[in-house]
Amino acid sequence: MKLHTIFLMTSMLAYNLVKSHVVLTFPRARPMAFDYMDNRNSNPPCGVQFDSDKSVMTTLVAGIDFTVTWHVAYPNQGGVKIQLIKLDGDLLTELTDANFVYQNDSTKLSHTVNIDSNITCDHCVLRILRQAKEWAAQDNGKSDDDYHFWSCADVTVVTETEEECFEGKCINGGTCTSGVCSCPSKFEGERCEYENECDTNSDCSAHGQCVDIGSTFHPKKVCFCEPGWAGRKCDKYSKLTNAKLKKSEEKKFRKIKLYENPEFSLFWRILKDKEEIEIAVRAKTDTWCAIGWRPSDVDEHCKKFPTSFLPKSDPDANNPDNSAEEEDNDEVYEEEEEKSEEEEQTENTDEEEKRRRRRRTNRRKRAVVDKQDNKINEIEKLCKMGNTTAAGEWARKSFDYSPMANDSGDDNNEKEDKDTDEDKADDDKTAPSPEPEPDAKPKEDGDDVLHAMDCMDIIFATAKGKLHRVLDSYTRDRSTPHHDAWYGGSEDLVAAVAKSENGMMYLRFIRKLVTKDKSDQPLLDQPMKMIWARGQTPTKFFHRPFSGLEKCEASDYGYYRVHELKYHGTKPSQRGSITYNAFDDPKNEEDTLEKGSFSHPKDCAGSDCDFRASWRYRKSTDLIHFSIEARVEAEEWAGIGFSEDKKMEQSDAVVGWIEPSSGKLTLTDRWLVTKTPEGVALDNSKSSLRNARGWYLDGKLKFSFSRARDTKDDNDLPLTECIYFLYAWGGSIEKGDIGKHTNTEVSVEKICIGSATSLNLSWSMAVISSLISLYLATSRY
Question: Given 81, 338, 384, 677, which is the most exposed site by the fewest CB atoms within 10 A?
């Protein structure tokens, strides 16, 4: 079986790691300081509300100059506007101009301002607005001012003072002497406003080096670790010391070639005895690489973490985030007519020839892209010569994915026309062709309603020779990913190592399949949305449509730094996504995956269902994974049970609900003695449930869990034999336990899960048949 047939769906052009960003770095942005907040998808005036427990107040002095700084990960066309506003969003004063400034410098990251001396406030807000003119221009002819990104900082403005050391001048523990701030370790800036990860090598334990990566924003100094050590401070022992898989090791791993040339390959193996996964990446890059994942059943509930706010109710209304890259439509739909067998055979041959030509064309498209990649980027040179037209033309050629005129695939070169065995092998190993970029608009049931970047667990890696920096990271949306501690989480990689060698990045890490950290996504036996990306270099950057760099609207053409996480680029060779089950093993055809489901009302679909239960069983693990979805009130429960005779008495059940106060799932393993709520008791042994996850959103309770077919628990019914399934939902939660259900259903017939059941049944029938034959044979005598 060809590998690409195993993919459940693919969208290699399905996302952009970052599309446009802005976040204040001084004054310090209001937490959570996401940098993907725009006026179309987040609520005014800032996209995030004030939190008195987390927000930091910065003291500003009216009449005294101070410098506002910010970070952007994508150099959009257009400028910035800095304002002082009230908490409710009403304008106090423009600190730059009524118009946007720096429209000819997309890489500008600072501006000095002065607050008029007659303005003071105990609590007001400094806000920056950042244009993205190339996207606004595509938005139904609306003006540039109608679309922008924003970030806010909470400030106190005091009257002008002659005191050199005013209260609140030196922040983050700094001390003021004669108007000069002395900063504690790792902090720098006139007011100690910027924080690095390290100052000296000693901040990176005894196993790392403090390196200034020349970033355009802080932290500029970060720790790079020696092999055998990992973590942001290089203080975690790592049993992995060699990032590069040996040929003998590769045989132990499963593999997907996410992109062929330049290479981006993914290797993995499930360490079943430890419930861990080991992942390795081999990517052609001089900068960084990243790999991410989330379960495909995750919906918008995930965006309530780490802060409980969601986008506007209609986030896609007038949304300018349209894909500039569309898949070629190779199919022609014509009115069907009855055809003769000969015509059908000819048509099939023609269709196969078309497919072969498309495969060749796709390979040539990739080759053209890579030839452009290998050129030295001349945009800076052309822009500094004042030749904007030539810079744009160079960029257009770099963006041209179409095959060259003399390479259309229609020539008569027999050697070119034939697919070689090597070509076919490449087809088997390479991810399928790109699909159009999806938006965030809710779709039909079964489709992903999230952007590919939303709620992603991400491993980011960069390296300087043998020294590496591997971060356990997460992103809530299209904002720049942050390490887990930024979200209040922890570093959960069991081991990690990376290496840069001859233009290749090698990454290898081990992680638990399931952790308790909310900034981690579990790796389950189900389809997972997986994304990948590699960084751009200071001399090769690609945006479509043009950013300010290609329009010669920049002061820093080396805007992309080697070890800094910024936009990965537009080309399909730079980033992609797939949906894939990491537990699937194409080499083990006997590792069957059985599926089943129930829905109420019968034959309902999607949001029309009041209750849905589905299950998947994998032979190699002998685990069944159950998913439950029920239309219930916020403080009601749902469950699934197992019975030998359709009765509640002496049956096994799993019941779950979401705690209203915490939003956490309570999942209980129960044994039913009677029909009364008192009889639906917790079983007296250790819970047999694993990998439990759940949430409540928009009137629906959803949860999932895994259990063994035979748990060896006297209070669990074994599912190695055929059994009736019970479904219940709508009961109340009373004093921390369940009340009587309001809805119940029972499977019409017994449900059999696992080939062992059918094998046992077949074996039993075979034995019975043999005994009968033997009896008949012997009875003759």
Answer: 338
